[in-house]
Write a structure and sequence with these properties.
148 residues, mainly alpha
């Protein structure tokens, strides 16, 4: 009769439906010497839990912090970044001096290029103005719905 109850509790245990009292009952049953033969396969499982409770952690934990390593790492990273920036500016400094910066000798060509640049700027500003109108319409609709 008791082995039937233990079988039911084992089944409930593997389904995750046992209470703490039922799990303690299983641990007590499997830690005793009179375990039914067909249930002996579960004895190491529940015996492990009782042994694990008795284990203690005896290793000492060092209390030294590793802030020194972090400090050296940050210093090294800063040096690498500065070297990278210095190398980049050194090798690209010659390119800036030789570039054509958009100066024109012919006034008509300069006028045409200026018109192109201002047209591009005007298109982008118009897009920005359209989105401002949409925001204004949203605020008007919001004020209608949520009357403050």
């Amino acid at each position: 009769m008791e082995s039937d109850r233990i079988e039911i509790l084992v089944e409930k245990y593997f389904q995750g439906e046992t209470s703490i009292a039922e799990e303690n009952e299983l641990k007590n049953y499997f830690s005793s010497s009179d375990v039914a033969q067909h249930l002996e396969q579960y004895q190491p499982l529940f015996g492990y839990f009782s042994q694990a409770k008795k284990q203690e952690f005896k290793q000492e934990i060092p209390l030294q912090s590793k802030k020194r390593n972090v400090a050296w790492l940050s210093i090294a990273a800063s040096v690498v970044v500065l070297l990278g920036i210095g190398t980049f500016t050194y090798f690209n400094n010659n390119n800036v001096e030789n570039q054509d910066l958009g100066s024109y000798d012919d006034p008509e060509v300069a006028f045409v290029e200026t018109q192109k640049a201002l047209a591009l700027l005007s298109e982008n500003v118009n897009v920005g103005i359209e989105s401002v109108h949409i925001i204004n319409e949203y605020e008007v609709a919001r004020d209608r719905v949520f009357k403050y």
